[in-house]
Design goal:
mainly alpha, Farnesyl Diphosphate Synthase
Length: about 280
C-alpha cells in the first residue's frame, strides 16, 4: 500500500514543490492502513482484481489522511503530534496544511474517475457517490462537526454512537463496500452482511480509540494521549467506564464475526482485521 500511495501522490520535485512535499509527508511512512486493508479483505470476498482494489484502497486512505491533517489544525483539535511525528501544520504551516487536505481529497476522487474499477460504468459511478457520501456532511465531516459541538456536553451512549458512526464508521463502511464492488456482484443479502460487519468494526475502532486515549501514553499512540479528557470531550470511557467500554468492544467484535459466517474462508482477512481492531494496543 505504501508503494501504491507513493505512486499516486505527486512527486515532491513537481511544482508546487512545497505543497507536494507536504502531501507526501502527511500520507507516507506511517499509519496502520486499516481502511485499505479492509478494502482488500472485502475484495477477496468478492474475488476482485487486486489492481482495482489498489485504486479504491488508495482513495479511501487519501480521504482518511486529509481528515487527519484538517483534524489536527488549530481550529479543530489543535494537535502537534500525529503518527509519531509533528503534524502537517507544525512541520509546514497552517495554510499549507489546509491546502494539503484539499488536495488529498480531490486526488482521491480523481483516482476513482481515471481508472476502470468495474465492468459496469454505473457501478463505478456508484463508487464515486459512496465515497463522497461517506466523506461529507452526512458522513465523516458531519461527524467531526458533531464532535466539535459536543465538547463539554454530556452525551448519551446512543448520541455518542451516532457521532462515531459518522465520524469514523462511514469511511470504514465505504472501504468495505468499495473493495467488494471491485469484484463479482454479490447478492443484496451478502452485501448487507458485509455492511453490518463494517458498522460493527467501525464503531469498535472508535471505542478502542477512546480506551487507548485514556489509558495509553503519547509514545505508544504516536499522537497526544489524554487529549479527549483535556478537551472535555465525551467518550465511551467517560460515559461507560473502561471496563464496560472493553466489554462493548468485545460485543461488537463478536457481532462482526457472526455476520461473516456465510462467507467461510473467503472472509478470513476480514476476521483477522476485526481481531486487530478490537485487540490493538497502539
Amino acid at each position: 500500500m505504501e508503494g501504491v500511495l507513493s505512486g499516486v501522490l505527486p512527486q515532491a520535485a513537481i511544482a508546487p514543490q512545497r505543497l507536494h512535499q507536504a502531501m507526501r509527508y502527511a500520507v507516507l511512512g506511517a499509519g496502520k492502513r486499516i481502511r485499505p486493508l479492509l478494502a482488500f479483505a472485502a475484495g477477496e470476498v468478492a474475488g476482485a482484481d487486486l489492481r482495482r482494489v489498489d485504486a479504491v484502497a488508495a482513495a479511501v486512505e487519501l480521504i482518511h489522511a486529509y481528515s487527519l491533517v484538517h483534524d489536527d489544525l488549530p481550529c479543530m483539535d489543535d494537535d502537534s503530534l500525529r503518527r509519531g511525528k509533528p503534524t502537517c501544520h507544525v512541520e509546514y504551516d497552517e495554510a499549507t496544511a489546509l491546502l494539503v487536505g484539499d488536495s488529498l481529497q480531490t486526488l482521491a476522487f480523481r483516482i476513482l474517475a481515471e481508472q476502470k474499477l468495474a465492468d459496469d460504468p454505473a457501478v463505478q459511478l456508484e463508487m464515486v457517490r459512496l465515497l463522497a457520501a461517506a466523506s461529507g456532511s452526512r458522513g465523516m465531516a458531519g461527524g467531526q462537526a458533531i464532535d466539535l459541538e459536543s465538547v463539554g456536553k454530556a452525551l448519551s451512549l446512543p448520541e455518542l454512537e451516532f457521532m462515531h458512526i459518522h465520524k469514523t464508521g462511514e469511511l470504514i463502511s465505504a472501504s468495505v463496500r468499495l473493495g467488494a464492488l471491485c469484484g463479482q456482484p454479490l447478492e443484496d443479502e451478502e452485501m448487507d452482511r458485509l455492511l453490518h460487519y463494517a458498522k460493527c468494526v467501525g464503531l469498535a475502532f472508535q471505542v478502542v480509540d477512546d480506551i487507548l486515549d485514556a489509558e495509553s501514553t503519547t509514545a505508544t499512540l504516536g499522537k497526544t494521549a489524554g487529549k479527549d479528557a483535556e478537551a472535555n470531550k465525551p467518550t465511551c470511557v467517560t460515559i461507560m467506564g473502561s471496563t464496560a467500554a472493553r466489554a462493548f468492544a468485545a460485543e461488537l467484535h463478536d457481532d462482526a464475526l457472526s455476520s461473516l459466517q456465510h462467507f467461510g474462508e473467503r472472509a478470513a482477512r476480514l476476521r483477522q482485521l476485526a481481531d486487530f481492531i478490537t485487540q490493538r494496543e497502539f
